[in-house]
Amino acid sequence: MSDVAGSGAPGDVYRFTTAERWVHRCTSTLMLTAIASAAFLYVPELAEMVGRRLLLVTVHEWSGILLPVPLALGLFFKGVRADLTELNRFGPQDKGWVWRAIRRGTGFAGPAGKFNAGQKLYAAVIAGLVVVMVGTGLMMWFTSLAPLNLRTGASYVHDWLALLIGILVIGHIRMAVRDPESRHGMRTGRVSRTWARREHPLWEAELPKREPED
């Protein structure tokens, strides 16, 4: 798998490499599978539509266990490591960004680098929740790992955090639906310089004024 984004229209700029896009696609597929299978397991009306509970349990367990794998494999690629570093770095421009975005909208929240503060917070929260979900899931799957009282607590935490993840993911999808060019960038690896200058001006300012010829 190449670590280079494909070619695009004149005036476009590179945003995500092939490796980054595949990590996102695989992770999102596993996440949505885990959420959907959980819904069919816990909502009686949905469970009745399928009926094959053992199959749903198996799909849910394995989609959850495999969630960290795409990112772990992505660490072999420079682009993925660079974006993780950027996501973990909060700069002066990120202070107060979320509150301004809530009050006035993201377009008035202030300048952003390659990722805005909302995206950084989302990535950090989801990463932490996935670690807890995998840990509690393993405790419920392999009953010998913990005594009954800990497994009961793990089940309680797992269920409530699953609800929180579902809400966060729905919010993430909603934001993506409202920004077609952002989706285009994740799908193709490239965005227009106009969009980059409008949505992530600090990142756009660091880009070369002209893309190298293919």
What's this model, at a glance?
The protein has about 210 residues and is mainly alpha-helical.
Please provide a written account of the structure.
By secondary structure, the chain is mostly helical. It folds into two domains: 16-76; 96-214, Fumarate Reductase Cytochrome B subunit (Up-down Bundle). It is built from eleven helices and two strands; from the N terminus they run βαααααααααβαα. The protein has helices spanning 18-42, 44-50, 53-65, 69-74, 78-87, 97-104, 117-141, 148-177, 180-188, 193-199, 201-206; strands at 12-14, 190-192. A two-stranded antiparallel ribbon has the order 1-2. The longest helix has 30 residues, at 148-177. It starts with 11 loop residues before the first strand and ends in an 8-residue tail after the last helix. The model is unreliable at 2-7 (pLDDT under 50).
SSE layout and pairing:
Blueprint: E1 12-14, H1 18-42, H2 44-50, H3 53-65, H4 69-74, H5 78-87, H6 97-104, H7 117-141, H8 148-177, H9 180-188, E2 190-192, H10 193-199, H11 201-206
Kindly state the percentage of residues in helix.
55-70%
| CATH T-level topology of the largest domain | Fumarate Reductase Cytochrome B subunit
Strand order of the largest sheet: 1-2
Q: Helices and strands: which structural class?
A: mainly alpha
Rg over C-alpha atoms, rounded to the nearest angstrom: 20 Å
**The CATH C-level class name of the largest domain:** Mainly Alpha
Tell me what portion of residues adopts beta-strand conformation.
Answer: under 5%
Q: Do you know the CATH architecture of the largest domain?
A: Up-down Bundle
- The CATH superfamily of the largest domain is known as Transmembrane di-heme cytochromes, Chain C
Give the mean pLDDT.
85
Q: How would you describe the shape?
A: elongated
Number of strands: 2
Major sheet description: 2 strands, antiparallel
